[in-house]
Design brief:
- With about 350 residues, the chain is of the alpha/beta class.
- The protein has helices at about 5, 25-45, 65-80, 100-120, 180-205, 225-245, 250-255, 265-275, 300, 305-325, 330-345, and strands spanning about 50-55, 90-95, 125-135, 145-150, 205-215, 275-290, 350-360.
- The protein has 11 helices and 7 strands.
- It starts with a helix and ends with a strand.
Length: about 350
């Protein structure tokens, strides 16, 4: 199974789509806003460029895709108005893997352009959009062609689905029962991928320009509940279906989620080792499952049997599961998963976010 072909969020705008089940991701982007604004402000004030090229890597689709772009442009426009500067032109590159629902993004662009004109006025420079399908674990842009790179909740995804992890039986990810060699394999793949990501971006960014990355992470133990338990619960649902003969055991044992949630120290270590960037800020935040409700009331997030949490995870995991196990089991897997979440997952469960702001040397 090639990750580049099958890894993408659930497309469209239906009930189980990522577009309608990404409130946690939206909240994380909002939490990162002060760091992102600080970086784009420093970038603009350093040279007052006449054009700014922005790349959003792992943009997905839905309301979050253009949210960051809008905030970045708004910050620059506010500064240039205060000093009487002519607005720069904006070139925005939206990147994700080929399976991403780019069509939904493109259909939303006319409304977004109208929103920019209405909110910022006629003086704001034109904004040009380009979709860039492909893996960010490789070159995507010309040498020294970017001024600002942003990525949120994407770099925890690895470039490969693991094969040969037979010792991780009955698990689909790193778990409390996983042997040391499994944890080592995941970590080494993260090191390889993140180092390559940094190398590629260092070639594409103009010297002195900025990159802000938000990665789903963890505090310390790679198999801790904060990063792994949500997948352990999904593995329980799959194991139940194996026991009942609905899924082949060999299929389960050959399935591994291509994700690694790094600690802040692991992120910092790879940046220093690769050597192309200076660390401006390294911040750790936590987000609660309460983001599943508009009023952010965690007591409601698990009401109706963990329905909202299961829907969010389905929007993320369904394409991977369907490509490996087939479409026929999906509804039943997530019905069982919802019941397990309601029974076992605490409403106060939090995920850790590692946010790093970098300057190209």
């Amino acid at each position: 199974m090639e990750v580049v072909q099958v890894l993408h969020m659930k497309g469209g705008v239906g009930e189980t789509s990522y577009a309608n089940n990404s409130l946690v991701q939206q909240k994380v982007i909002s939490m990162t806003k002060p760091i992102t604004e600080e970086a784009i402000t420093a970038l603009y004030r350093s040279t007052y460029p006449t054009a700014i090229a922005i790349a959003d890597l792992g943009c997905s689709s839905g309301p979050n895709t253009l949210f960051v772009v809008y905030e970045l442009i708004k910050v620059v426009d506010s500064i240039r108005q205060k000093i009487g500067q002519k607005s720069p032109e904006y070139q925005v590159f939206l990147n994700d893997l080929p399976g991403n629902d780019f069509n939904t993004i493109f259909r939303s662009l006319p409304n977004f352009q109208n929103k920019l004109k209405k909110q910022l006025g006629a003086g704001s420079g034109p904004c040009f959009f380009t979709g860039v399908p492909g893996s960010f674990y490789g070159r995507l842009f010309r040498n020294k062609s970017l001024h600002f790179v942003h990525s949120s909740y994407s770099l925890q995804w690895l470039s490969q689905v693991f094969e040969g992890l037979e010792s991780n039986k009955r698990n689909i990810y790193m778990a409390s029962t996983s042997p040391p060699e499994v944890l080592k394999a995941y970590y080494e793949q993260f090191q390889q991928d993140f180092s390559l990501f940094l190398k590629c971006r260092s070639e594409e960014l103009v010297a002195g320009e900025r990159m802000v990355l938000t990665i789903l992470g963890r505090s310390d133990d790679p198999s801790s509940k904060e990063c792994c338990y949500i997948w352990e619960l999904l593995a329980m649902a799959l194991n139940d279906m194996v026991f009942e003969g609905l899924i082949e055991e060999e299929k389960l044992n050959s399935f591994n989620i291509p994700q690694y949630t790094p600690s802040p120290g692991e992120v910092k270590s790879e940046v220093l080792k690769e050597g192309s960037f200076t660390i401006d800020r390294l911040v750790v935040t936590e987000v609660n499952w309460n983001a599943y409700q508009n009023e952010f009331d965690f007591s409601n997030a698990f009401k109706d049997g963990g329905y909202n949490v299961a829907k969010c995870m389905r929007a993320v995991a369904e394409p991977l599961l369907a490509s490996h196990f087939g479409e026929a089991i999906i509804d039943e897997v997530f019905r069982r998963y919802r019941e397990i979440i309601a029974d076992r997952l605490s409403p106060r469960t939090e995920s850790v976010n590692v946010i790093i702001s970098l300057i190209k040397g």
